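Annex B.
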Amino acid sequence: MTYCIVDDDAVSRRMLQSIIEQSELGEVVGMAGGGVEGKERILELSPDVVLVDLLMPDQDGIETILQLKQEGFQGKFVMISQIENKEMIGKAYRAGIEFYIHKPINRIEVEAVLGKVVEQWKITRYLSEIKQSLAKLDSLHPEPVASRRKEGAREIMQHILMDMGVISESGSRDMTEIIEFLIHHHKSETLPPLKELYEVAAKAHKPVGSDMDKEGKAVEQRIRRTVYAALTNLANIGLTDYSNPKFEHYAPLYFDFQDVRLAMRDMDDERTLEKRKVNIKKFLQVFYLETLNKLREA
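Response regulator: predicted structure tokens.
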């Protein structure tokens, strides 16, 4: 992830660069001491995130952001300032900033704020990649419209889970409850916090009065085991037949392919398969979007 820092205070620029790079939040590809210079640097470098000071002698941060947006810049903005005026801060948010960092610079605050920005950036990237992959796959393997109309969300999900070999896993039921809830009650294509989703599945199968925190953790473990089982099954399919349609479709879409390759390597070397960390949020995000995509085409 790349950053550009625009601040007339050289000390602040160096501090922010040091925090970003030492905390491994990304790479600072450019810096500028004013809004006019900063605008040119940003358009030249096209960083993922711009950290911009609110008050600068030549051009303030809000004006810089508005000009960049007019030029078509698509990156994210984080405002930096010691100003506490609510009206000014509100104006900055309306201009398009994502978060606000207070001066004097504090390492903990910078790490926390930029950590959230990184997470949002990853989700946006995942969504874009998923939509592109689904659109490409659908154009290559179109299903008859008549057959799609007969399928509801549950049938679509069961077909996907069956393809990945996890339809009988207990976590599959939890994931089906979660996706059905999102389809009927959630307006956005991005997911709410995982803890809320685990509680959705817990409430679907437990009576009122149950310890939701405990049940939510049980749901998390079931889903984690199911996602891991899907990774293992797909890696096994890929090892046997790399061109298998199920492997080609699901492995790069639902998992980071690096993890799939490592699982395949362990199997090929006849080693005990290492218990790898799985990205539950990505799996559920893709599962949700693929189900929505098939429903919309029905």
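The domain at 2-120 is CATH 3.40.50.2300 (Rossmann fold). Residues 140-150 have pLDDT under 50 and may be disordered. Further annotation is deferred to the next reporting cycle.
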